[in-house]
């Protein structure tokens, strides 16, 4: 399934339009997969796709939200920009959730939206939407193409901005008259962006200061976020942590940047993090944040966040440093470059007591759950999936309890195998993201762990799974509820389950079958290992309706407004 | 605290929208913004007067401005030796015999009368914001019918004093 990029031979196209020029720019950018959906304003572009016999694959979704989440999944596992095409107006507005999601989680996307013809922009023309205005606050940058001459430059800039520095989504709005315009020429694509010069290499003074600070630390801790994954610095992180015996905690999005099974790994920190990780954050005296943004779901109440720590923060985005947490040692740099610089330093470390204490916490307060004799225990289910896939699958999730359980129990040992919506917490993300992940990594096992609620937000993409013959395993953690909402209502609203319990759900097995996809239902733990074995050895897509206990809650937990040290549900 | 921030930006479409949108989203309180072309083709200069709560907030402000792709340079010039000016047009109610009185008030401010009608006169004043404010205050008793200000535009003086103590010699 590897896709080769070949040039579009000019002789095959009898005439050249703006759209042909556009396609050529995508080929030049080595695009191999496009996630899109046609419509009036992009008809010239789709005509060019048809005529070009282009070397890339176009994946037709069943809703533009499906396209963009797929592009996000693709970007997360490949590290390359995900490319999306949608039509003007409703096509573009259907992308908004995904664009915002990519902005929050720093995913490189280049999104092309059709626009009404230049001459009628501003007249409320049919299917006109102010895409530039709407997407300005949710993009790293956006453009409206004004002339055909600037098209190649704009596209090149868009790819550059999306994929360098702190990655993010870039929107390019293309009026229909420009994509339809017949042209003979080729135009320059050179650009200069004097205001955009991401700083990759760390300031040596800050690195020296950081090395000295770590040398004096009694209770040092590394917090590793998604920045480590974006800069492909997992190997350096491991070497650094091992060399100086530094314990590591992960953010939700940083999972996989440091091996989950490593003895120095304390687990995920934050609202549903481990006791060991959260207490380490609470007690540490030097906190080295590498590529995380101190999100409030990580920090809990800021007053109690690392109260005794000197904070050092390595981030490619200077605006993240000092934004939420006062930072003594700012290091504006790519994580890999900073870690390499640190590895060249001589750091003396002596914190045996600290490590002993952390190991004690890890052993005494591990994650726990109750088994069930009727339906499946959801945590146990994730554990089973981990075992069957040997911890080596690409896992995407939706948002809710199942997401947290997957983060807790699917211990990620390798980078870029974890695809979840963190910052925006977008229900409907997980399943289409798995489609994109599988297209980006055709030879890997891709598992989408979704809730019965979120799956119903984007399950129309089952058609795509079938059409593209993608062997994704969809695991529905079916608790007949908006489980996370139900949990908060149980804990904080005196069990008033307002609109969070489903009276009706579809028969997911029949639903899958109606799309021509194998459907399986698992209702008992006793049956599960064998049935899952069958599912995972099946060479094709499977939708698995796993009936789990509804009343299970995600623990441990830092309740809203509480500090890291005020976790509940630490022990049974 | 009020800060005067200048930004040199690439003159691309939507740049003002992007920047004011960001300031709004990040909850910064904008006193004034003035924008215009600079000495270099394709480069504009923006001057912001913005209320920030503390130093961390100020740092966020300059960092978020700098983060904008179109922004080339950001300077907080509040504590530098600067020339800062704004222009105000003030229409005050006035009958015949008040005119001379108003003339007397505005002349120390080097303001000028640019329009006169039976019941009103329009005054133009240029200067530092505090000077403009002071004149507006003095004209209040006559009844201000209309008022418009351009917002501050500013840049560094050619010569910057070395000692920090000198800096406050030229407040806004
Ligand atoms: C688009 C969207 N709408 C609403 C929410 C709020 N929300 C967060 S978790 C959740 C429940 C999700 O239910 P389900 O998908 O069944 O997962 P579960 O928590 O049961 O595992 C809801 C409604 C959200 N995150 N995203
Ligand atoms: Mg559910």
Task: Tell me what the structure shows.
The complex is a heterodimer of chains A (572) and B (172). With 572 residues, chain A is an alpha/beta fold. Chain A has three domains: 168 residues, Thiamin diphosphate (ThDP)-binding fold, Pyr/PP domains (Rossmann fold, 3-Layer(aba) Sandwich), CATH 3.40.50.970; 161 residues, Rossmann fold; 170 residues, Thiamin diphosphate (ThDP)-binding fold, Pyr/PP domains (Rossmann fold). In chain A, the strands form three sheets. In chain A, strands 2-1-3-4-6-5 form a six-stranded parallel β-sheet, sandwiched between helices. A six-stranded parallel β-sheet of chain A has the order 9-8-7-10-11-12, with helices on both faces. In chain A, α16 packs across α23. Chain A is globular and about 75 Å long. With 172 residues, chain B is α+β, with helices and mostly antiparallel strands. Chain B has two domains: 75 residues, ACT domain (Alpha-Beta Plaits), CATH 3.30.70; 69 residues, 2-Layer Sandwich (Alpha-Beta Plaits), CATH 3.30.70.1150. Helices cover 29% and strands 40% of the residues of chain B. In chain B, β6 and β7 form a beta hairpin. The C terminus of chain B is likely disordered. The complex binds thiamine diphosphate (TPP) and magnesium ion. Magnesium ion binds next to α19 of chain A.
List keywords for this structure.
heterodimer; A: about 575 residues; alpha/beta; Rossmann fold; 3 domains; six-stranded parallel β-sheet; 18 strands; about 15% strand; globular; B: about 170 residues; alpha+beta; Alpha-Beta Plaits; 2 domains; five-stranded antiparallel β-sheet; four-stranded antiparallel β-sheet; elongated; binds thiamine diphosphate; binds magnesium ion
Provide a concise account of the structure shown.
The complex is a heterodimer of chains A (572) and B (172). By secondary structure, chain A is an alpha/beta fold. Chain A contains 23 helices and 18 strands.
